[in-house]
From TrEMBL:
The lineage of its organism: Eukaryota, Viridiplantae, Streptophyta, Embryophyta, Tracheophyta. Keywords: Transferase. Pfam families: Sulfotransfer_1 (PF00685). It comes from Cardamine amara subsp. amara. This is Sulfotransferase. Residues 63-321 form the Sulfotransferase domain.
Length: 325
């Protein structure tokens, strides 16, 4: 018997539909030489797109779900850690706090990259329960379709895209275990500027969540990595209020805000055993998610012309949106 014959009829049809949908989409090649497909205004490889289609089709949202969203390399790991620490703060842990036992990506899995890659009906019973915490890199319009009008809380973190680009370059090189190659940064830069980049164009991404937050500020919070860095107390309290778990006066007086910020600091997370030695389910070293975390680090790598070109793209794309870079 052919393997496909063993798959239930309804799943067989889904798979065929998926393949046919993907092959009908516009496609292009990114800096890796990888084929990307354009779906709902953004670009994905085949595998990710299958995960997105499964997610949109099969996700059964609960009204209490919390979704951490971002363009890659924009502060996801930090925001996941902060969200876990906020929600877990009333429990008394000694050496078994979830952040000591797993990387933030293990605790807050990516919907389309981890949970829904193989099926539109995955087992979600292992998810950190009540409220369930998920993450995604898809833009707002694509996420909203999967949420099917459920009032889940969505927290988006945005970062200066030039810093995100350099961060991605380092990350790719670390994963490939190669020295940082300038030529690779230049190719990635071209992909970024043309918009044909994994989960890009970045401007579609950022603008989708920006508009989402303006339309529904109760359920969509738009945070900036740079503000998290410069005013962490204010931003953490804002996040807590948005998630309906504000700090009490007693908590503030007893240093709970500082405790969470310290637990989730880059220095602390980077030095935890689990992050020095562990790997994600997809085989990425936890360690690769932690580098410098500095504002404006891209200045050290991008030429003046490169910076100017991105600035001009941003100015043009964000014109009329009220979104300041
Ligand atoms: P992801 O998209 O693969 O999840 P993401 O966490 O969004 O990556 O971004 C990684 C960046 O966040 C890295 O920035 P850098 O390359 O410029 O250094 C990483 O160092 C930074 N980062 C990770 N954890 C923290 C943290 N706790 N505080 C501040 N920055 C952090």
């Amino acid at each position: 018997m052919d393997e496909r014959e063993m798959i239930p009829k309804n799943l067989q049809r889904d798979e065929e539909e998926t393949i046919s949908l993907i092959s009908s989409l516009p496609s292009d090649i990114d800096f890796h030489g990888r084929e990307l497909f354009k779906y709902q205004e953004c670009w994905y490889d085949n595998k990710t797109l299958q995960g997105i289609l499964n997610f949109q089709q099969g996700f059964e949202p609960q009204d209490t779900d919390i979704i951490v969203a971002s363009f890659p390399k924009s502060g996801t790991t930090w925001l996941k850690a902060l969200t876990v620490a906020l929600l877990e703060r009333s429990k008394h842990y000694s050496h078994d706090h979830p952040l000591l036992l797993d990387n933030p990506h293990g605790l807050v899995p990516v919907l389309e990259l981890r949970l829904f890659t193989e099926s539109s009906n995955p087992d979600l019973t292992n998810i950190l329960s009540s409220p369930r915490l998920f993450s995604t890199h898809v833009p707002f319009h694509t996420l909203r379709e999967a949420l099917k009008n459920s009032p889940c809380k969505i927290v988006y973190v945005w970062r200066n895209v030039k810093d995100a680009l350099v961060s991605l370059w380092y990350f790719e090189c670390a994963n490939l275990k190669i020295e940082e190659e300038r030529s690779m940064l230049e190719s990635m830069f071209e992909s970024f500027c043309s918009g044909v980049s994994y989960y890009g164009p970045f401007w579609e991404h950022v603008l989708s969540y920006w508009r989402g937050s303006l339309e529904d500020s109760k359920n969509v919070l738009f945070l900036r990595y740079e503000e998290l860095k410069t005013e962490p107390h204010v931003q953490l309290k804002k996040l807590a209020e948005f998630l309906n778990c504000p700090f009490t006066v007693e908590e503030e007086e007893s240093g709970s805000v500082e405790e969470i910020l310290e637990l989730c600091s880059l220095r602390n997370l980077k030095n935890l055993e689990i992050n020095k030695t562990g790997k994600t389910a997809r085989g990425v070293d936890h360690n690769n998610f932690f580098r410098k975390g500095e504002i404006g680090d891209s200045k050290n790598y991008l030429t003046h012309e490169m910076e100017k070109r991105i600035d001009m793209i941003i100015e043009e794309k964000f014109r009329g949106s009220d979104l300041k870079f």
